[in-house]
Design brief:
homodimer, about 150 residues, mainly alpha, Arc Repressor Mutant, subunit A, two-stranded antiparallel ribbon, 6 helices, DNA-binding
DNA sequence: TATTGTTATACTCTATAACTATA
DNA sequence: TATAGTTATAGAGTATAACAATA
């Protein structure tokens, strides 16, 4: 122990065995980005989940609630209030699909909001990956997909 | 559109704009690993959070609840029931530190359990990163830390 | 029989506020 | 004044079960 470590006010270095665990680091990184996104969307009165649903409807006009749930892994039971909220706020409209399901589409208002959502997300993502090269970003995305896909 | 795409049973390909978003891919990967870890620990009757506390106490005998909370970003109020549970189960013991705080240490039982926890985590991590080279794993950890640290 | 959408509900995780005791 | 630990509680997010209507 060197001189700067002596005395009662020595900085007690904490050993963190979670430091080199992929699962833990993934969780911390995920929570950090999720919280930042929530903050970035707060004035649009959208949670990250609702924003992701809008993006999916925007890219797939006529998609059903159940299909959205399957893609985003949101239970049907939890999709119902989300779809109801987005419809009530006139961001999404329902069009008859078959007797038991309805296709969802963005309304005009929904389209203007989703454009804002895309811009917020772009800025949000840049806050975290600004110093990554394109190759590094691609490698990261590939690694992340391999963790949860297949 | 080619022949295989014609007809009413054509596979409707869903476009997923979240596919190349780091934040979303992080979340999916994080949830996948978290759920797998929870399953891997279920017969030890430990949740991932409790396991992480045990690892931290094991690596830092005498650490206080508050210090653990600062490292793992767990509120003091949420550390209390965790510490109480681990103490009640005789995995952790409290030793007087100063009048308002107590250092935590693993008991003999706690040491045997934390050894099992480490083994479970090692297998669990391997399930996800078995095909990563050491360089790829290091690059991933570096990228994840840069996302949430500083 | 299986699927869609819905409601109700329970469970977990996390955040905030308030309090006591000690530094 | 600030910190440690505790309790109570509120708010999200998510999971399960049950039901009606339709395929």
């Amino acid at each position: 122990m060197n001189a700067s470590m002596s005395g009662k006010s020595a900085s007690k270095k904490i050993v963190n065995p979670l430091d080199d665990m992929v699962g833990y680091q993934l969780r911390r990184a995920s929570v950090a980005m999720f919280d930042d996104l929530a903050t970035a969307l707060v004035d649009l009165d959208l949670r990250p989940t609702a924003a992701s649903i809008l993006l999916l409807v925007g890219a797939n006009p006529g998609i059903t609630q159940s299909a959205i749930g399957r893609v985003l892994e949101i239970e049907r039971a939890n999709m119902a209030p989300q779809a109801a909220m987005l419809t009530k706020r006139d961001l999404v409209a329902r069009s008859a699909s078959d007797g038991r399901s309805q296709g969802l589409r963005l309304t005009a208002l929904g389209k203007t909001i989703v454009t804002k959502v895309r811009a917020r997300i772009a800025v949000h993502e840049q806050r975290f990956i600004a110093e990554f090269s394109e190759a590094e970003k691609a490698a990261l995305l590939r690694a992340l997909k391999s963790v949860w896909q297949d």
